[in-house]
Amino acid sequence: MQSRFRSDRQLTVRMTVTLFLLGLLYVAFVAALIVLLKSWVLVVVVVAGVLGAQYWFSDRIALFAMHGRVVEREDYPELHAVVDRLCAIADMPKPVVAVSEMDMPNAFATGRNPDNAVVCVTTGLLRRLDAAELEGVLAHEMSHVAHKDVAVITIASFLGVIAGLIVRFAFYSQLFGGGRRDQNTAAVLAAVMAVSVAVYAISFLLIRALSRYRELAADRAAALLTGRPSALASALTKVSGDIARIPTKDLRTAQAFNAFYFTPALGSEPGLARLFSTHPSLEQRLDQLGRISAELGEAARPGKAG
């Protein structure tokens, strides 16, 4: 079912290209592991198991990691009312509504499709935003679900997770330390580590590039759906400013799910570090919303219709 969120052809193209490139990388990665480990059954079972778990249970994993809980209408009537209104406007199924007891002002959406989606906000966000700003943030998150980019990011991040797990396993189990190993075993372990590191680095950069664009696409879709880009801009400014005052320990807890958040847990990255950021800079997002506001203002002037 097609929602009323404005479609974004560039986002669709970027998602397709990213998944295609990651698919090629994925095939090469699995093939390399099979050759190196000489056990295709083990590799395929482990890879398929992790991919299945990440795809089918991504919403539960994210809620558990961020201490989120599903809330009913009687618990948060105003929050449910905003979600209901947006679902009616966008003509899409209502996602599960959740709240995380965190002071960090943020929100995220997850789930494999619009019929199995979760939208979660923190209590810190609810305390700081007014109704119009909250609507803008929730429209932003729901557009991720409508565009299906939240599912694409979940699948795309799978390869990096696998590679990262292999690298961590190698370090934590001290594969290169203690005991006697023949040269062939050491060479295989070194090759597995090298392939895993390379795959992690490539998938990391591809996912970051897609993530930055999808945030701009979600801002644009939310602003056009609600017709109030200024409210979303105000929410962005408030949240970005207040995150700087949240204890670093709390922010680092949330950093693992940065790509899914409304704004990055640790703020915007300076200089070249922006290449590795999951989000565009606040200035980019506000500039885009400013242009949309001007466009909507032009369209509303007498004599501009039709």
UniProtKB/TrEMBL annotation:
Q: Which organism is it from?
A: Streptomyces phaeofaciens
TM spans, by residue? Answer: 12-34, 40-57, 150-171, 186-207
According to its UniProt record, the EC number is: 3.4.24.-
Organism phylogeny: Bacteria, Bacillati, Actinomycetota, Actinomycetes, Kitasatosporales
Residues involved in Zn(2+) binding: H140, H144, E215
Keyword line: Cell membrane, Hydrolase, Membrane, Metal-binding, Metalloprotease, Protease, Transmembrane, Transmembrane helix, Zinc
Q: Where does this chain mainly localize? A: membrane
One Gene Ontology cellular component: plasma membrane
Know the name of this protein? Protease HtpX homolog
* Record note on cofactor: Binds 1 zinc ion per subunit.
Q: Which family does it belong to?
A: Belongs to the peptidase M48B family.
**Has keyword Manganese?**
no
Q: Which GO terms describe its molecular function?
A: metalloendopeptidase activity; zinc ion binding
The UniProt record lists the keyword Membrane: yes
Q: Where, per UniProt, does this protein localize?
A: Cell membrane
